[in-house]
Amino acid sequence: MKKLLIAHLALFGANLIYGLNYVIAKGIMPDFLQPRVIILFRVVGASIIFWVVSSFFKTEKIDKKDFPRLMLSAFFGIALNQIMFFEGLNLTTPINASIIMVGTPILVLVLSHFLISDKITVNKLIGIMLGAAGAGYLILTQGNISFSSSTFVGNILILINAAAYATFLVIVKPLMKKYNALTIMKWVFLFGTIYVIPLSINLALKADYAAIPFRIWMSVSYVILFTTVLAYFLNNFSLKTVSPTVNSAYIYLQPFLATIFALSVNEDRITWTKVIAAILIFLGVYFASIRKVQIKK
Hints:
Layout: H1 2-26, H2 35-54, H3 67-91, H4 94-101, H5 104-115, H6 122-140, H7 152-178, H8 181-206, H9 214-238, H10 244-249, H11 253-264, H12 272-289
Helix pairs in contact: 1-9, 1-11, 2-3, 2-8, 2-9, 3-7, 3-8, 4-7, 5-7, 6-11, 6-12, 8-9
């Protein structure tokens, strides 16, 4: 019970960080840094941090047969996931991106069933539907959603990002049962760095760093330290205890937590829309987290 509570607290913290990231990351691009330059910073920075931190703990040896899965996890969870998200966010709106990401738990539910034989239960289906309804209702009332031709490419890239992240959560789950989260993260980010450098180094060398103000460097620091290092660690740590479907269901909390942040700085107000959305989201997370009735094959 204690492990389960810690896992849920970890997921809550990770998705609070992700919820704020939509606005913070959008403020960096493209006026100051190109998306792939930010990705290079966060992947290389996170890799260095994970390897340095892991040096203070007992070394955990990876079985040779697990390296292909680690490399595949790095491809979907680091390279493809992050490149598609930042390139997509640069070409679309935060609201569009939030709406599309609501589909991630549905993809995780399906992929978990076929790739790691995770049972599709009635409770999970109810939870996914309630969470999607609450998140979608909240997002759609915050502004105008636009799938016009000007944002079409960005929307497609965010969709690929959602699929890549869903795949990552599923294929990394068996590794999390076998190794601790820090071990997995240091190797995943090392392989991720190898993938990302060739795609980003030219843009990084051409960037005008002298023109970047201090506030933007603070945003970049947030993306590296919180969105990448801490959130990735918390998410993967939770996979030792909960299923990929439960993990992904917390994505529905992101727009709600972003709204809470706006309320805390007096940039928003409480409405019945937000109350109803919050109830649906929390019910969704609850139902996705319990296992009782299973669908018979």
